[in-house]
Specification:
- The chain is built from 10 helices and 12 strands.
- The chain is an alpha/beta fold.
- It has a single domain, classed as 3-Layer(aba) Sandwich (Rossmann fold), CATH 3.40.50.
- The strands form 3 sheets. A 7-stranded parallel beta sheet has the order 3-4-2-6-8-9-10, with helices on both faces. Strands 5-1-7 form a 3-stranded antiparallel beta sheet. A two-stranded antiparallel ribbon has the order 11-12.
- A hairpin with a 5-residue loop joins β11 and β12 (about 290-295).
- The protein is globular, with a radius of gyration of 18 Å.
- The model is unreliable at about 1-30, about 40-85 and about 365-375 (pLDDT under 50).
């Protein structure tokens, strides 16, 4: 597929680049719903931007110590040098106790719809063959770094003695590149990536991308993935407002706020009752070139929830997406200002195991979020 990008620049992923010509193609044998959706992809053009800048932490008003790369508690630290003030990122949501039950399973596929994913040392053995919707090929390397950093939070390998460990350190990653080399993407390509991920076995689809405007083609893609049994996890946005951007605001999507160790939202994070759940919003991540960097944003918090969902699917392979979503919601600690509170993986595992996580009315819940979205 061909895409022409208007001028713009900067690592902060401004929303000034629009794909003016983008014609997706797709394989044979799709359902009537998918075919109808695919025919619409070429006609609808909008903008989206990566959220959670991976530059200086100060960019998003977050002050943390970064002397030693970290992302795991001592319980599963790949290296003693990784222990630092960032251990709370996995300890506070209960990953320690959860990892005693499961660290994931390769049969659980988590898609990263983003800027691509580089095969860093931390991700060796995690990556499945993916797709690049920007260049219309199977080369999913990451020219930006954002997708790689998101991927490391989800599934950097556990127990390898290398780097960091992700939330679901034995889950498989499905890289789906939807951005250009500048890190921006059209809603068209994002929708294409969501549909492709659902058709290629993703149980969880992480979207750390945001657009401020609703899009029917994006909504249709999310609905299609949900009908295929995928759980969609999306970042709420980094505008610091009491509202939720898209696709996080769509019905049935688990939207995620970024919070501090005190369970208060970071000032950059979209927040409030329109957001489903909260998770830590600053961490150390693996990035392109085999190095590590500090990252803050709802692009950090969303993959932690996606990884947690992967753990639940690994522990309970027959669970549905609605059951896993409800367990995450009902198991959350009732702190902060989101609808359900802050992620508690251990309690969510217990709820799902006891069949206590009765699927909540997710469509009506999400519809209320959609209604209060201010534009």
């Amino acid at each position: 597929m061909n895409a022409r990008w208007r001028a713009g620049g900067g690592r902060n992923f401004p929303r000034t680049r629009v794909a003016e010509s983008l014609v997706p193609t797709y394989g044979e044998g799709m359902s009537a719903f998918a075919a109808a959706l695919w025919r619409r992809l070429a006609a609808i053009v909008s903008t989206a931007a990566c959220i959670g800048t991976i530059q200086a932490v100060a960019t998003v008003s977050c002050t943390v110590a970064v002397a030693h790369p970290a992302g795991v508690s001592p319980a599963l630290a790949n290296s003693p040098t990784l222990a630092s003030s960032f251990s709370w990122v996995f300890e506070r949501p209960g990953f320690d106790a959860a990892w005693a039950q499961t660290v994931g399973d390769p049969s659980v596929v988590i898609a990263v719809v983003d800027t691509g994913v580089d095969p860093t040392a931390d991700l060796q053995g995690a990556l499945l063959p993916g797709y690049n919707f920007n260049d219309d090929n199977s080369q999913t390397d990451d020219p930006v770094g954002h997708g790689t950093e998101v991927a490391s939070l989800i599934a950097a390998r556990a127990g390898t003695g290398i780097g960091v460990t992700g939330a679901c350190g034995r889950c498989s990653l499905l890289p789906v590149r939807v951005s250009g080399p500048d890190g921006s993407a059209s809603v068209t390509t994002i929708a294409s990536g969501i549909v492709w991920a659902a058709d290629h076995g993703a149980r969880v689809i992480n979207i750390s991308l945001v657009t401020s405007q609703p899009s029917q083609v994006l909504a249709d893609a999310v609905t299609y993935a949900q009908r295929k049994g995928a759980l969609i996890v999306a970042a709420a946005g980094n505008e610091g407002i009491a509202s939720t951007d898209y696709p996080a605001a769509l019905p049935g999507v688990l939207s995620v706020e970024a919070t501090m160790q005190t369970d208060k939202p970071y000032t950059f994070s979209n927040h409030g009752g329109s957001v489903t759940i909260a998770a830590p919003g600053c961490a150390i991540v693996s990035t392109t070139g085999g190095s590590y960097t500090s990252a803050c944003g709802t692009s950090v918090s969303a993959p932690l929830v996606a990884g947690a969902a992967g753990l639940l699917f690994a522990a309970h392979p027959t669970a549905t997406a609605d059951q896993v979503a409800s367990a995450l919601e009902q198991g959350a600690d009732r702190v902060g200002d989101t609808r359900f509170g802050r992620l508690n993986v251990t309690r969510s595992l217990q709820l799902l195991g006891s069949s206590a996580a009765t699927p909540s009315p997710r469509q009506s819940h999400a519809s209320s979020k959609f209604a209060r979205r201010a534009f």
